[in-house]
Amino acid sequence: QVQLVESGGGLVQAGGSLTLSCAASGSILNVHDMGWYRQAAGKQRELVATISSGGNTNFAGSVKGRFTISRDNAENTMYLQMNSLKPEDTAVYYCNAVITELGPRLTTSTYWGQGTQVTVSS
Hints:
With about 120 residues, this protein is mainly beta. It has strands at about 5, 10-15, 20-25, 30-40, 45-50, 55-60, 65-70, 75-80, 90-100, 105-110, 115-120.
């Protein structure tokens, strides 16, 4: 069974930094595209950043220049370095990955982590 586990959330003052991690585990053959999404209270989930297996990245306009996404393919782990945090970055952050799972037959599915809370105080 494939799982995604996020860590690194917490409370930080505006202007501060946090680094989130997302580790994929289980019977994994390949981890393809990975991404971070966030959902603020009362709002829809929105894309923050994505990274392909080859390292191509994409960012939401609201975080471009402040956030960096990276991954360690050997460890099946993804990171989100968040700098110059603003109160409007407060949300539950979710990681997402497209993974090919080993089994009697190979299956490719999209997985979500359980989410980690990021709170930025003003």
